[in-house]
Amino acid sequence: xxxxxxxxxxxxxxxxxxxNICRSAVGxxxxxxxxxxxxxxxxxxxxxxxxxxxxxxxxxxxxDSALVLSGLGGDAEGFVARQLEPWMVEQADLVxxxxxxxxxxxxxxxxxxxxxxxxxxxxxxxxxxxxxRRPGDDGDFAEPARALxxxxxxxxxxxxxxxxxxxxxxxxxxxxxxxxxxxxxAEALLPVLAAVVALHPDAAVPDASDRAAxxxxxxxxxxxxxxxxxxxxxxxxxxxxxxxxxxRHLGVLGRRRRVGSGS
Length: 263
Known about the structure:
The structure is a single chain. α1 runs parallel beside α2 (63-72) and α2 (63-72) crosses α7. A four-stranded parallel beta sheet has the order 2-1-3-4, with helices on both faces. The chain is α/β, with parallel strands linked by helices and 263 residues long. It is built from eight helices and four strands, in the order βαβααβαβαααα. The termini are far apart. The chain has a single domain (11-201), classed as Rossmann fold.
């Protein structure tokens, strides 16, 4: 592991959907909230951003998605939709799309990005398949993170994709669909981020594999953390006695605010 005094090279993660006001927007802000909790100021070492293939440029997050995000523990304040540009893909170490069509759109812009572009659910599934065969945390932060992405790409030929890789657009649908989409994004994104966080020199994550599994299990059940789930390590940010983990954000909507109840 690198010297704690060294400054890690940031890792760039790009989320892509269509309008950049629902799915990828929720993922960006939920992911940033998680990174800030587990890494404190060092959460900025994961440069998590989003864009849309046909973005509603300059628009705020959809109000229903913003409400869902709040229930998951994120904040939509100041969010502005952006159009996907080739340079964004070029600069990203990992591109996560919400559907297979978005993945095709990304590769249409930058074909050589294939080895670092996945649907969000595809990446989460490949991560589970890797198990203990994930790269270690030797070297600068960006180096093992890129090795992790390369391992995902190497595992992809053995996997069959399908409709289940897509997270559908909730635009024009009732609030319940925004809730389902927010939960689906959280269940897929947070374990991937947890695996990246585990490679950071400031991380206090005891076992990224177990934690990622706990995140998915808790999101699927819609209940509190499993009794046997690994507990978070000590916080890095001053003034915190315990480091929150991604399971908090998978408490389904309403842990902090019950969506639709007015509370």
